[in-house]
UniProtKB/TrEMBL annotation:
Residues 86-552 form the FAD-dependent oxidoreductase 2 FAD-binding domain. One of its GO terms (biological process) is steroid metabolic process. GO terms for molecular function: steroid dehydrogenase activity, acting on the CH-CH group of donors. This is FAD-binding dehydrogenase. The keyword RNA-binding does not apply. Keywords: FAD, Flavoprotein, Oxidoreductase, Signal. InterPro entries: FAD-dep_OxRdtase_2_FAD-bd (IPR003953), FAD-oxidoreductase_2 (IPR050315), FAD/NAD-bd_sf (IPR036188), Succ_DH/fumarate_Rdtase_cat_sf (IPR027477), TAT_signal (IPR006311). Pfam families: FAD_binding_2. Its cofactor is FAD. It comes from Enteroscipio rubneri. Residues 1-30 form the signal peptide.
Amino acid sequence: MGDEFKNKTTVSRRGFLSGAAVLGAGAALAGLAGCAGGQEAKPSAGNEPAQGEEPTAKSDITIEKYWEVAPDPISDDQISETIDCDIVVCGAGIAGLPGAAFAAEQGANVHVLEKAGTWGTARLCTCGFNAKCQVDNDITYDRDKFITDVWKITNGSQGRMSSYGKWFDNSAPYIDWLQTVFQSKGYDIVPQQVTGFKVTNDGVGQVGANEFWATYAAMIYFVDKDGKTLADGVNIDWTGILAEYAADNGATFHYNTPAVQLVRDESGRAISVIGENESGEYVKLNASKGILLACGDMGGDREMMGYFNPSLLKTRSIAEVKNTGDGQKMGMWIGADMDDFAAGDLFPFVAVDTNGERPEAKDSKSYAAVANLPVFMVDTTGRRLMPEDLPFQACSIPKITATADGSAWSVWDSAWQAKFPESYPKGDYLSMNTPEQLEIDIKNGITVQADTLEELVEQMGVDPEIFNEQLERYHGFCAAGKDLDFYKNPLWLTTIDTPPFYASRHVVSITSTRGGLRNDEHCRVLDKEGMPIPGLYAAGNTAGSFYGNVYPPNIMGSGIGHGQCFSWISAKDMLGIEYI
């Protein structure tokens, strides 16, 4: 998108949503909320309306956003090629491929537009409930409890309870279908519990972890032709297998051809997608049965991401920089509605040095040794931050919402092995919690060591008065065997009193955003009046109406799992095939 669109914003956002101004993004956004109709906001001592004025309604507040400004329509005389087909899928990634593969399997004429030069990167798992591969291993999940628990975890905001039920009900038939696809290619799938594999700090099987965090550990891993899984260090290119299956069944892939515009006819139906190939030529695909937007998230457009969740600007290392909200933008340009806010898929303990930089040494792990365990943790002022035994996504949230810069310090002493429970996590592909790795981390500058706590605090750069007060209080909890501030499991209430002492700083990494175009129970995209746009569907990170402003941390793999399932449902709905 060119600068001519960015320049149409009422208030320039680039300056205060990037660089050093990131820390003030929340305050800046709060200020924007007071700007109506592009006029300068008047200073006020409080939030109350001025005397004689009525409170401003949300619908009266105007914040013009460049991503909502539609470019000029691409005319037919600019089109170099026109293709008639049944279904167009925008995005050959994790969410787009199941819909494309299923529709092609059913005999539909399917065309797939993909921005990159190949199919999307495979992640570690998918996710579902009560599929055959789970039930055969005595793994089952309760529907009523799942739906109500997810509703509670997300605070009932934005996502619909009916959407959680739709995923729960359809995930088993989807996973069963997926298994037949992989078995036809000589591969298979298997529940995580069967492999025994545990992801660092996910709370599954971790000593002292609250079982609540493992209630919906429904990840499903992929099995290669030799029977190896992620537990053996193997993650097959399963997106490539889905793409091959779709192509074998007649789907046509257009790589290096991003979708750039949607077209609606006079009745309001979405009928066409215009793509731009690598030669800069426009290709128009007319879809008689439907269009599926599965173009990924918006994390590659930091201004857009910051608008929908300023806390996410404190994260680092977006995984897919090419995912710039293209599907969401194309939808909005033809009248689709968006979620009010977005969540992030977050990894909480990404190691950085004292300057906040990621290490470049090849012997460094993503997570520093010991720092990812439930040790004493403080923010950059020295103030304790959370119950340190929160697993996975859950401990990311306080770091990006309750700190100035989204980072924190883990602190421990040299007696850590003797003090920790014997079965503490030894590490995985993210971390290695060993004395040997600890020495490597010290060498690489991501863990600091000192003979006294005073020296350690000085190296950390935190406020010594705050840190000492917090540590003294924490030691009192250790002595009492009860954490009255955060209620961390007493197994992990260990003192810091044996020199030398260690500290390691860490930040939150984001792989993608979760939030997008509002949709209904059939995955159809909704307009600003809440009505479906005929012919237009969304799935994966392009779709909304599922998450609130946090990723539910006890449903690991939910983004992949529900995104794939809803893509599959979208294809069924377009083809008139029944689903639950």
